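This protein record is not my work; I was only asked to verify it. The record follows directly below this note.
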Amino acid sequence: MSAAILLTLGFPFLLLGMVDLLNPNVSPEEKQDAWAGMTIVGIAPMGLGGFLVWNVYQQQVKEDQERLQQVFFQILEDQQGNITPLHLSLEAKISAEKARQYLDEKAKAFNANYEVSDDGNITYQFHL
């Protein structure tokens, strides 16, 4: 919320400052004032707002990764170390492709085996 306020407040001042800087009829002193004002009440709030948005995004990514890992370990525990991309996709509410990529990474990290059925389904087998 505060990021949106900072971005909303900073943007108009940034635009107003740019108009003065690009206007050939504005004196050098006024351009200097426009630059200072643009920096203080335009660029600074927008920079801080952008930083806050980035932090919120990074926190969400971290929480999503932690939730995915928790779902992964819960499935492994419930299924005695066996897991399919479809099962992970359904439980974690992620795409099948992301589930497959995640399981490929975990299989390499934990030295897991996998079986491919006749119909092409993959079951990963992790040693508990």
Remarks:
- The two ends are 44 Å apart (CA to CA).
- The first helix runs from residue 2 to 22.
- Residues 1-62 form one domain.
